[in-house]
TrEMBL record:
Keyword tags: Membrane, Transmembrane, Transmembrane helix
A single GO cellular-component term on record: membrane
Signal sequence, start to end: none
Full protein name: DUF420 domain-containing protein
Transmembrane segments: 12-30, 50-70, 82-101, 121-143, 164-186
Length: 187
């Protein structure tokens, strides 16, 4: 799996992070026109948040499985679980961004303003902040993993960065589920 040059991990992490964040913030800020994505029936757009909460919950499980596997020394299971987590994160992001662009932006919080200001908005802000912070950390850990043989990873910051990325990722996915429950179940 050594597809990435060792010397290019840091610059490639920076490039991928910047591109990812530009795409996300452009979509969230309404800078991407609805005509940029194919139209979908209303039921598809309404289904995406429900699908994304399942993806988030599954990602929490795969991250936890990957973390447990590496603590047991099972590098193969760890790699599979973390690649699955990355794939789930990618799927979540594609569906989320598609819906965001197709509907013309984020939907307003349907609950009372006091809940919006005291609970929903702080949870959403922390969720978004952690998701943004995770992007370069996840890319860096992933690129280190695919650019070196397994024995050499111990001589890199893969484990340290991976622990931080996984922790923040777990919190971000969990808070995303809280946002979903507040916006789609409770209110």
């Amino acid at each position: 799996m050594e597809y990435v040059s060792r010397e290019r991990v840091t610059p490639l992490t920076a490039i991928l992070s910047v591109i990812s964040l530009i795409v996300v913030f452009a979509a969230a800020g309404g800078r991407v026109p609805q005509s940029a994505v194919p139209a979908a029936p209303e039921w598809v757009l309404e289904f995406i948040p429900h699908l994304n909460v399942v993806i988030s919950a599954t990602a929490i499980v795969t991250i936890a499985v990957g973390w447990r596997a590496i603590r047991r020394g099972d590098v193969v299971a760890h790699r599979r679980a973390m690649l699955a987590s990355f794939g789930l994160f990618g799927a979540f992001l594609v569906f989320y961004l598609y819906r965001l662009i197709a509907t013309g932006g984020p939907e307003p919080f349907p609950g009372p303003e006091t809940v919006y200001l005291t609970v929903y908005l702080p949870v959403l802000a922390i969720h978004i902040f952690l998701a943004v912070v995770c992007i370069p950390l996840v890319y860096y850990a992933l690129l280190l993993a695919v650019s070196r043989p397994i024995p050499e990873l111990r001589q890199t910051s893969h484990a340290r960065i991976g622990r931080i990325a996984a922790s923040l990722w777990l919190i971000s996915f969990s808070l995303g589920i809280v946002v979903y429950v507040l916006g789609h179940v409770i209110y």
